[in-house]
């Protein structure tokens, strides 16, 4: 079986989690005799990479086109792949590369099966961005996507899809390979945010929350913020730094920039808690990465991570500054025995539900049923 994945950015991009998730998705699909092909761009890739030709990678064939998703050559390559594939798996409702690919397949290859992952784009807060453009596009989709199978990562996202599309939905969480468990090399209490510097991540609420925490203000407790900031969000980043200066927290809150590889794994292992305070999150891949290192997690109720409390490996909270301040105090005051229990249960949750080695068969079976 051949599957085409058009995607705007792909591993080793710094632009969010889907590129990394799909890389490992491809690696493990190949182990089940499925042939993935990725047509993407060089967006967000820092180190030099061979572009404008197909590369044979562990995840499958990958074409990194220069010039963004509207580059004519990249689109031409993608459309040529449509006629060779058994199934197309799209990864964004509103990315031009997905729109063009879908419309081309709809008109010229209507028998080709399509799976469409929405990646949190149907959340109310996400839809509020460029609202009118998305409104009209969604109206068009309701007319022409009747044969599409949508994909979600959690029940919350399945509900969001079915509010607009009455289609079949495949619900499978994001999964990743188990990485080497690293030792925690510090006894410092360092909370960690890892992700894009973007308003939807609620970093303003997080920073105000830690500044409101008596524990954070009066003890040796720190916050590390790791991740890239797009130029278009530089004003937001400046506003965060202003709040930090106003609260005289420059020595306690640090921006680390982009981290990857072993540096990222060690950062996660060293963290006291990972914090994901987002206004909207369809999944939150960084949670899996933290659990994989035995690091407990604090996640907002705008994420689908209620099971952090079910498994006793974290907290699921409202993302207001006051609630964040309260949970910082509570986490700090955990006894060492309770804290070590949280770390142990973090590994249990990851190994039980989010190992790609065991969960990839869910996708393999779903794909095979669709192309029968």
From TrEMBL:
UniProt entry tagged with the keyword Transferase: yes
Protein's UniProt keywords contain Transmembrane: yes
CDD domains named among the record's database cross-references: GT4_PimA-like
Parts of the chain that traverse the membrane: 87-109
Matches recorded under Gene3D superfamilies: Glycogen Phosphorylase B
Pfam families, sorted: Glycos_transf_1
Domain Glycosyl transferase family: 181-337
Signal sequence bounds: none
SUPFAM superfamilies: UDP-Glycosyltransferase/glycogen phosphorylase (SSF53756)
Keywords: Membrane, Transferase, Transmembrane, Transmembrane helix
Protein name: Glycosyltransferase family 4 protein
Classification of source organism: Bacteria, Pseudomonadati, Bacteroidota, Flavobacteriia, Flavobacteriales
